[in-house]
Amino acid sequence: MVQLTINGIKVNAEEGMTILDAAKSVGISIPTLCHMKNLFPSGACRICSVEVEGFRGLTPACAYPVSDGMVVETDSPRVRRARKTIVELLVENHPQDCLICVRNKNCELQDLSERYGVREHRYVGETKSHAIDISSASMERDPAKCILCGRCVRACHEVQKIGAIDFTKRGFASIVTTPYNKGLNVSDCILCGQCILVCPTAALREKSSVKEVASALYDRKKYCIAQVAPAVRASIGEEYNMPLGTDVTGLIVTGLRRLGFKKVFDTNFAADLTIMEEASELIHRIQNGGALPMFTSCCPGWVKYAEMNSPEILDHISTCKSPHEMEGAVLKTYYAKKMGIDPKDIYVVSIMPCTVKKYESARPELKEEVLPDVDAVLTTRELVRFFKIAGIDFNDLPESEFDNPLGESTGAAAIFGTSGGVMEAALRTAYWKLTGKELDKLEFEQIRGMEGVKEATVNINGMDINIAVVNGIGNVKQIIEQVKSGKSKHHFIEVMACPGGCINGGGQPIHQKPEKVMKRIKVLYQIDENAKHRRSHENESVKTLYREFFGEPNSHKAHEILHTKYFDKKKILNN
Amino acid sequence: MHKQIFESYQPLDRSSLIPLLQDVQNIYGYLPENALRDISDFVGVPLSRVYGVATFYNQFRLTPLGKNIIRVCRGTACHVKNSANILYALESELGIKAGETTRDKQFTIEVVNCIGACSIAPVILVNDDYHGRITVKDIPKILKKYQTTTSAAKKSEKAEVAE
């Protein structure tokens, strides 16, 4: 323990702690920009500068460790002046278009400008101008709005270990971009959107589909249907000042109806359907000597990663479409027939916590008879904006239930939104399929939580099934290497590209509260615990669907409509 | 052909990135895109970072050089002797900016900070020849002299092999 004084307050801090953390422990907030929790300090932006007695210059609090007897001033006139100058210089080289910016009122540069009372343009000079990169189906990159804090670069390199973007050139010409400034669509980017979540400004953002969804809703010929992913209901409340971890399922349903959707269905229904297909596929592979281990296919970011980097393992990935694509496919076949609607008139909108889903829904092979399974994808953030435009006061909405039959779901489907959830749901059903009995204990604690790679062994009918759960695409490399070298002992591996799973997806509300992921995960487990049915095979509507339409899981018809294929994209990338 | 260079380096060692870039540039006179990709795979550093390093340092070029390299001194003495005008005249005569190469691959203009020939300022260096105390009027004459010569041809031949 060391004792130091910060702003006249005696502080006891652990050795090795930074001034920033020590100050935080006594309620003193030092602003940061480039700092990222749990990563090595970069000390690049200098906004956290503080005055330390006996030091000549100002010291970055995020990078400097405390020592015994240290006397720190975090808010002296000199510190304030320095910080204000930094903000002024950043603001001056940043487009002055807050009024029409997508991050207006949720921008760290704006907050800092306000905090340090920037009220005039003191520096006039050349400002950078860069073109917006709209090449990808999911994301936009606007380097003119970039303040070069480097957080996206670190999220991409150090957290996700992809490295699609980096600092290039130097000095005034510096720009964070892809190799040869070629555009995200031909880079190593998997469009996971983790960079959007850490961007302090609007330099990185999703490609908005609000306009096209709005015009579809006004088109009288169109039969618009919305479906909501599990992770959205656990996070959207944060945008309405509700406490972290509030379940707002009923409110979203009402809100979507008010937007004009004729039906509001639950992607969780298709999650149950996915489990029926995927568990059957796994059993089939184990019993018939198919490619093992089998990887899950729910995460389009992971699928894109495998296609671009390890095409040789593509036959290890389950051929099941992801749940929202399944839901769309069922809507445009079974449901259209049942209701007597022309599938061409059905317009399916997925509300997703994910940016890659936009890219996925545009994949050419995911179109049933030239009709896309899903017509548009809105992220959680876009839905919030859409509600705002439509004058929907979310906090005051009454709750309502999903429509049926594609609105019924079990607890197993709800946990799809978190790392380990797909695996847990699949095990519950696989156990039943193989033994004819139900599991006594449904919770698999070993595969819950935020750890990068979680492993477990489950004994079913005398056979040991080895499973692994990976979250954060950076952790998947080691697993792929094992599979490639034939040393993998696993049977079934779940991969989610975002740390923590979809719950922390690139389309989720943006704020830098570190406890957000765990709080959101808790919501999903709560939904599961309180559910009447907690196993996918108990979903009555899914049973009916098989009885009336598909016959049985992995039937020929199911294969045609619910399964897909993957392509080697390594070559495209290298040319 | 740059792959032979890899033999003298340990794979997956980040610290060999800059020496490798230098060696590859010595072969081609610039850094071709496929070479950057190979270096990225060999060193185990994402292509974006390799590209970032290559664009950060002035010593690296991403486009091939012309047959003749004109280095315009913009050091203090030359500046006082109006080297800005010399540069401007060269740029407008060749129709390119500093750092670029003419479309016929004949000339590349580079700006350097001082070539240590202040006594004959303003000075330009064409390939290995110093031209001192020049005026704007001398420029067409100097350029003409090199348009036909092939003194730097070796370098550009190597560059063509890379493509």
Description:
The complex is a heterodimer of chains A (575) and B (163). With 575 residues, chain A is α/β, with parallel strands linked by helices. Chain A has 3 domains: 2-75, Ubiquitin-like (UB roll); 139-206, Alpha-Beta Plaits; 210-562, Rossmann fold (3-Layer(aba) Sandwich). Chain A is 35% helix and 14% strand. Chain A is built from 20 helices and 19 strands. Chain A has helices at residues 19-25, 77-92, 108-115, 151-159, 194-198, 210-218, 230-233, 249-259, 267-288, 300-309, 323-339, 356-361, 380-389, 411-414, 421-435, 476-484, 516-530, 540-550, 556-562, 570-574; strands at 2-6, 9-13, 49-52, 59-60, 71-73, 139-141, 166-168, 175-177, 204-206, 223-228, 263-266, 294-295, 346-352, 367-368, 371-372, 376-379, 453-460, 463-471, 492-496. In chain A, helix 9 (267-288) packs across helix 11 (323-339) and helix 9 crosses helix 15 (421-435). The longest helix of chain A has 22 residues, at 267-288. The mean pLDDT of chain A is 94. Chain B is elongated and about 55 Å long. Chain B has a 4-stranded mixed beta sheet with strand order 2-1-3-4, with helices on one face. Chain B has helices spanning 3-6, 17-28, 33-43, 47-56, 76-80, 83-94, 139-147, 153-162; strands at 68-73, 107-112, 124-126, 129-131. The termini of chain B are close together. Chain B has 163 residues and is an alpha+beta fold. Chain B has 2 domains: 3-56, NADH-quinone oxidoreductase subunit E (Arc Repressor Mutant, subunit A); 68-157, Glutaredoxin, CATH 3.40.30. Chain B has 8 helices and 4 strands; from the N terminus they run H-H-H-H-E-H-H-E-E-E-H-H. In chain B, helix 2 (17-28) packs antiparallel against helix 3 (33-43) and helix 3 (33-43) crosses helix 4. The A-B interface holds A 157, 162-170, 178-180, 187-188, 574 and B 33, 36-37, 45-52, 55-56.
Write down the overall geometry of chain B.
Answer: elongated
CATH-scheme architecture of the largest domain in chain B: 3-Layer(aba) Sandwich
Helix content of chain A: 25-40%
**Count of helical regions of chain B:** 8
Low-confidence stretches of chain A: none
Rg of Cα set of chain B: 18 Å
> What is the number of helical segments of chain A per DSSP (H or I, 4+ residues)?
20
Q: What is the CATH topology descriptor of the largest domain in chain B?
A: Glutaredoxin
The greatest interface here is: A-B, 16 and 13 residues
CATH superfamily of the largest domain in chain B: Glutaredoxin
Mean pLDDT of chain B: 88
CATH class of the largest domain in chain A: Alpha Beta
Strand elements of chain B, count: 4
CATH topology of the largest domain in chain A: Rossmann fold
What fraction of residues of chain B sit in β-strands? 5-15%
Which term fits the overall shape of chain A? globular
Question: Which structural category fits the helices and strands of chain A?
Answer: alpha/beta
Give, in spatial order, the strands making up the sheet with the most strands of chain B: 2-1-3-4
Q: Numbering strands along the chain, what is their spatial order in the largest sheet of chain A? A: 2-1-5-3-4
Strand content of chain A: 5-15%
Task: Flag low-confidence runs of chain B.
Answer: none
